[in-house]
Design a protein that fits this description.
Layout (H helix, E strand, L loop, with lengths): L1 H18 L11 H4 L2 E14 L8 E3 L8 E6 L4 E7 L1 E8 L2 E6 L3 E10 L2 E5 L4 E6 L2 E5 L9 E6 L1
Antiparallel strand pairs: 1-2, 1-3, 1-11, 3-4, 4-7, 5-6, 7-8, 8-9, 9-10, 10-11
Amino acid sequence: MKSFSYFFCLIIAYLFMLSCSTEEDGPVDTTTTDVLGTWQLTQLTVSSAIDANNDGITATNLLEEVDCLNEVLTITANGSWNLGGVAPALISSITGNLYNVTCSEPFALSGNWEAASGTLQLNGGALTQFTLSGDQLIQNVGDDLPGIRTKVYQRQ
């Protein structure tokens, strides 16, 4: 009789555990929290390799050619963003792969942001859209020289 009572209690406990379920709130959009933080510009690419510093070595990443370029993007939880730094003001052809890149004065921009489905959209002035790829935010500008092809920011 003791073993029957023990067995019966185990079955009741098992059925009780099966009847409990966890409540799920649905899928969580982690993209929103994934974009928060500070992002440093690590690539500023152009469509063809150029030699802007006249060292005989060409590169498509302007950061390898021009020392003054620097941008930091900060995304905050309150829905705002800030971008500051020095950008290329003018890219002009000299001859062949030689280009002159003039840097802007230091700038500061701000606005609000939205994130969904792996993309980040910065609002404020011109609309700017980034794709989130791991610890990188990628802006595909798509212009040929003398314009910018892509901008890549690395999470800091």
